[in-house]
Amino acid sequence: METEETHVEEQLNVASYFLEHNMEAKGQRVAIYYDNLEYTYKDVLLLTNQMGNALKSLGVEPENRVYMVLSDSPEFVACYYAALKIGAIPSIGYTFFSPKDYQLELNNIRPKVVVANVEFIDRLRDAIRHCRYPKNLLLIGNSMPTLQKGEVDLSTRMNRADDSLEAEPTHKDDIAIWGFSGGTTGLRKIIPHRHYSLAFAYEAYNKIVRYTEEDIILPVPKLFFGYGRTGSILYPFRVGAAAVLFQERSTPERIFDFIEKYRPSILINTPTMIRKMLEVAKGRDFDLSCLRLTMSAGEALSAQLYHEWVNRFGSEIVDGVGSGELFYNFTLNIPGKVVPGSVGKPLPGYEVKIVDDEGHELPDGEVGVLIAKGGSAGTHYLRNYEKTKKTFRGEWVYTEDLFSKDRNGYLFFFGRRDDLLKVSGYFVSPTEIEACLGTHPDVALCAVVGVRDEDGLDKTKAFVVLRKGLTGSEAMADELKIYTKEKLSPHKYPRIIEFVSDLPMTRTGKVDRRKLKNQEKG
Fold first, then answer.
1. Which of 100, 301, 418, 429 is in the most buried spot, having the most CB atoms within 10 Å?
2. Integer Cα distance of 305 and 438 in angstroms
């Protein structure tokens, strides 16, 4: 089901579609706020052209992969758009990877070049030593070390490059990017996406968010996350909005500082950071009246957390669901009509169903597997034919996520299918228990995992962080068990509750449930 706006010409290059579109009108507008500097759209375009010409001078051709290991900066933006503009395929690596992680990715992606900040050189050199690819390591930054064979000072090469560059005449079905799915542990699955996929996804998303040239976007997730990158330097650039970028780690304090300094209109946030910002804001005066929208994704956003944020700051949170397989969000709440606790409805041009294990659609209210279709779907999983057959079935993408749909079409998340636990003969969703515990006034954070008792049976265990000033006790644990029994079906209460000072996080900013489970085994 494609909307009229997604009918594009056969020749489509998304660098031109997003960055160069309407350049005459937006050229002098600020595109990036970074390190007390302002970069206009014309500045970004010239930087992109120089980067593209530098890449071409080093042998990068259409369909070659460009692996990026870059901190958030104008150079990240320029490299991303430059690769797209010359018809190459940008693939984004996490800046925190170990040499072993980089080695796995390089052997899988096989990039022609790696573009990286010089501060990551030691880990990348260690990884590249064991790889056939890349042919060149292109380095950006100050304090350049003595370069080895195949290493290039890209900044110097760019300064010598022409600042005009014609976009490669890519076809709308040519591959634009390699996206990723998973990867909190082990090798990430690679999903090729067409140039058309990015345009389709934007047109659908923008029907709800409605970016304007006056918008200033502040992303909490770093640009190597698709959620942060797409929502700040891709979609908004189509209309001439601005993004606030910073290299340092995102903390509640820094986010509040940037809000005060730049007065953004859209905050790209996550439930974990939303909770941390609320904790930091206690007893302090923060003015977030500039925000017209706070976006949320990555984890389930409870109705309780939604209401706390809105009551404290007045900024509505718009939650939705996205995936690497469908490039970005394919469901979203509608501003002004948010249903707290839900992930909204399918975006225009997308269709979803809730199905059982045999693929039969379930009635409203029943929990099943979410399947979705739309013009932004990826083509396959690279070098994973068996998994491709299970996920990409004709027009439909079969997720591993469990949802229900109410009679009004709003979707509610119940966790991953492989996270379901069978307790006392009943299937139980840890996510549902977490959402319930999160509504208790004394609970700040919680995570529920399955543990085995001495008889080898599954039990639900909740790790609970209480609000500041409160101490865990047997009486408090009993209170929380009774609370969940009353709110949910009686069999869904957590059998075991452990009070902790904090929850472990993965490197992607989500609760590390694997670590909690392993902690129990240890």
1. 301
2. 8
If asked whether residues 387 and 440 sit together in one domain, one would say no
Q: How far apart are CA 514 and CA 516, in angstroms?
A: 5
The DSSP H or E segment spanning 414 is: strand 411-416
Name the token pair of 445: 């954070």
Does 161 lie in the same domain as 58? Answer: yes
- Per the document, the length of the chain is 522
- pLDDT per position as a tens digit, 496-520: 999 999 999 876 667 888 788 877 6
Report the percent of the chain where pLDDT is more than 70: 95
Q: Kindly report the CATH number assigned to the domain that includes residue 502.
A: 3.30.300.30
Question: Taking the CB of residue 274, how many other CB atoms lie within 10 A of it?
Answer: 24
The helix/strand/coil state of 178 is: strand
Range of the domain at 446: 422-521
Domain shared by 206 and 239, yes or no: yes
Strands of 406-457 (E only): list them: 411-416, 421-423, 426-428, 443-452
Task: Answer yes or no: are the C-beta atoms of 89 and 176 closer than 8 Å.
Answer: yes
Task: Give the orientation angle of helix 271-280 with respect to helix 252-262, to 10 degrees.
Answer: 80
Ramachandran angles phi, psi of 204, nearest 5°: -65, -45
Cis ω on the peptide bond leading into residue 134 (within 30° of 0)?
Answer: yes
| Coil vs helix vs strand at 235 | helix
Query: Are 91 and 220 members of one domain?
Result: no
- 172, 177, 380 from 393: Cα distances, Å: 22, 21, 10
Among the listed residues 347, 345, 342, 367, the one whose alpha carbon sits nearest the alpha carbon of residue 355: 367
201 in the same domain as 133: no
* Whole-number Å distance between alpha carbons of 447 and 440: 14
Q: Going by DSSP bridges, is the β-strand pair 496-499/329-332 parallel, antiparallel, or unpaired?
A: unpaired
Last residue of a domain, one of 192, 225, 246: 192
Distance CA 105, CA 127 (A): 10
Q: Tell me the pLDDT tens digit for each residue of 336-355.
A: 999 999 999 999 999 999 99
